[in-house]
Design a protein that fits this description.
The protein has about 240 residues and is α/β, with parallel strands linked by helices. It has helices spanning about 40-45, 65-75, 95-100, 155-160, 190-195, 215-220, and strands at about 1-10, 20-25, 30-35, 55, 85-90, 105-110, 115-120, 120-125, 135-140, 145-150, 165-170, 200-205, 230, 235-239. It contains six helices and 14 strands. It binds zinc ion.
């Protein structure tokens, strides 16, 4: 099994009842949580128990991507468990130290030069352009390729990193009508272009600004990637 379930699709804050960016990846019989925004821990428990998380990847340490890892730390205090491998950039240092000092996590800093073999999957990282150190993630499992952009501006390097992937999960925070030059996120038009340039088989748009019109985001992206979809919380996608 190689499957993505959306736990949270918003950023930088959720809509009522929603969560900010977070995903459960099922790799074989293992559970890997990719980013842990606010509300994601509540949604995760509809699927698995908090003691069934096998690994965590945080693509950057903005709070809308990581704050529930700090809440997980409370939940796991006193539990008789091996530390959970947690891959994360080692900066900003304040947030990194909070994670690194938690006994429930085995923190492993991300760099572009590491190649992680985890549960039969090969995981690599590519630095993106954002306000803090941020990595796109590529996970290859049984010949299938999944790429998550994390947060980034429009980047031809993302398209190259995601070349021929089966599923590109892409930051698409704003319709073009709301997007401004200098925003640290791509417009939905740019997300569609990046998906098209990557020759991705599926494009899922995420990190949706809660004030944006999703229909407009979808329309913008579909100009360049006709099968693009907006992420739906608690929906699963086969990779
Ligand atoms: Zn961010």
């Amino acid at each position: 099994m190689f499957e993505l379930t959306v736990l949270g699709k918003y950023g930088p804050y959720p809509k009522r009842g929603g969560a900010t960016t977070s995903y459960l990846l099922r790799i074989g019989d293992k559970n890997v949580v990719l980013d842990m925004g606010t509300g994601s821990l509540a949604h995760l428990q509809n699927l698995i128990s908090i003691t069934e998380i096998d690994a965590i990847i945080l693509t950057h340490l903005h709070h809308d991507h990581m704050v529930d890892a700090l809440i997980l730390r409370y939940a796991l205090t006193g539990k008789d468990m091996e530390p959970i491998p947690l891959y994360t950039p080692d900066t900003p240092s304040y947030e990194y130290n909070l994670l690194d000092h938690a006994p429930c996590f085995d923190t492993r800093p991300i760099t572009e030069s590491i190649k992680v073999n985890l549960f039969g999957a090969e995981i690599t990282f590519k630095g993106m352009i954002h306000l803090v150190v941020t990595y796109a993630v590529k996970i290859v499992y049984q010949g299938k390729i999944f790429v998550f952009s994390s947060d980034t501006v429009y980047s031809p390097e993302l398209s190259a990193f995601a070349e021929n992937c089966d599923l590109l999960l892409c930051d698409s925070a704003f319709p073009i009508s709301m997007w401004k030059q200098g925003t640290p996120h791509p417009s939905a038009v740019q997300a569609g272009v990046m998906g098209n340039d990557a020759h991705a088989k599926q494009l899922i748009l995420t990190h949706i600004n809660p004030e944006a019109d999703e229909k407009e985001i979808l329309k913008d992206a579909r100009n360049f990637f006709p099968k693009a979809e907006v992420a739906e919380e608690m929906k699963s996608y086969t990779i």
